[in-house]
Amino acid sequence: MNLVSDGAGRLLYDGVALAEIAERFDTPCYVYSAEHLRTTFAAFRDAFAGHDTLICYALKANSNLSILRLLAELGAGVDIVSGGELQRALAAGVPAERIVFSGVAKSEAEMRLALEVGIHCFNIESEPELIRLNRVAAAMGRTAAISLRINPDVDAHTHPYISTGLKDNKFGIAHGDALAVYRRAAAMANIQVVGIDCHIGSQLTDTAPFLDALDRLLALVDQLAAEGIVLRHLDLGGGLGIRYADETPPAVADYAQAVLARLAGRSLQLVLEPGRALVGNAGLLLTRVEYIKQGETRRFAIVDAGMNDLMRPALYQAWHEIVPVRHRDTPPQTVDVVGPVCESSDFLGRERELAIEEGDLLAVLSSGAYGMTMSSNYNTRPRAAEVLIDGGQVRVIRRRETVAQLIADEQELLG
Ligand SMILES: Cc1ncc(COP(=O)(O)O)c(C=O)c1O
Ligand SMILES: N[C@@H](CCCC[NH3+])C(=O)O
């Protein structure tokens, strides 16, 4: 993240003083860097340039329309998991033919909408889902292009809550059932088999599990071809990790090189679904210290952002670096950075060494992915504003929610 301190000890993000952003837009506030988004997307595009590759950004990581539009203008497609995400993508101007639809529970209405607009491909996660899609497509007189999402039973070595490619996980079709389900799909009148797909987990810091999964998929591609079922594309999913603390995820170029070496000589289009790797380090959460409270055993910095704004620490004990926006010469003290929500799991960071006082601003780094999209209104807390820094200018890309918005749908119905 492009964070530097100026001569006066003020923290600048992409050249803009974070204190000024807080002054203008209040806190808590998500702050994103357009420059970072462009750079990371270009790194993916360039790394895979030698091969026919469609980069379908997994918009569950950050679904702000302005971010989607920025990535779509750079050539990205998207991976969606709901009708809501489909409508977001279309509203942002993502071309339908660059949309892939994952998710274990696609409803009939979601299938109809995706068929109407003509998405690139459905990633089918079970045989019942395949049967339903064939029926829905038949009723519309359409043909649905599909991949089967295979669960390759590969250990992604990540947090158990975000591992998705093990046989105990709910995702995908068991590897051992794949050929039978493909045969069934190929015989369906309103299904066109075009690809194969997997997604083994998130925040992977090693290429080996990706390559294991890829090898298992390629073996299936060859077995299917021998039976006359020739696939056009292979979707390797997302999952490439980022650095939050001291992780050393592979560089995109190294990941690409390893993957492309396996695909050399094949005419398979490659589809990728990166989420976190594109946006995670493109954003921070700006928050203000409301109180410093010395408890009996611990010292707390109580800030105005909570687990409803950034849920990752509460849900996964995830570690996000927290830095003061203004430098103080006083000695740092050990504090737990906690939010205002009435839960003991409401923390953003524990046992941090910080020199801060009441009223100071803190930046919670690497919050661009699974921050705002996982936020909630718990404790009737309006969601934070989102702003984008682009070329030294800052603009609001999502207004701060108001309590009036939150209660409107109930207020109308008061007896
Ligand atoms: C099907 C699918 N594709 C892509 C992603 C994006 O993952 P990541 O943000 O780790 O790249 C996810 C989330 O884990 C997913 O479930
Ligand atoms: N929400 C998770 C990632 C899971 C991705 C969804 N399959 C996180 O914050 O790390």
Structure, explained:
With 415 residues, the chain is α/β, with parallel strands linked by helices. The protein is built from twelve helices and 21 strands. The protein has two domains: 3-32 and 280-411, Lyase, Ornithine Decarboxylase, Chain A, domain 1 (Beta Barrel); 34-276, TIM Barrel. It has helices spanning 18-25, 34-47, 65-73, 83-92, 108-117, 127-140, 178-186, 208-226, 252-263, 276-279, 312-316, 403-411, and strands spanning 3-5, 11-13, 16-17, 29-33, 53-58, 77-80, 99-101, 121-124, 144-151, 173-174, 191-197, 233-235, 269-272, 283-294, 299-303, 322-324, 333-338, 347-354, 361-364, 385-390, 393-398. Helix 6 (127-140) links the parallel strand 8 and strand 9 (144-151). The longest helix has 19 residues, at 208-226. Pyridoxal-5'-phosphate is lined by residues 58, 61, 79, 102, 164, 199, 202-203, 237-240, 273-277, 369.
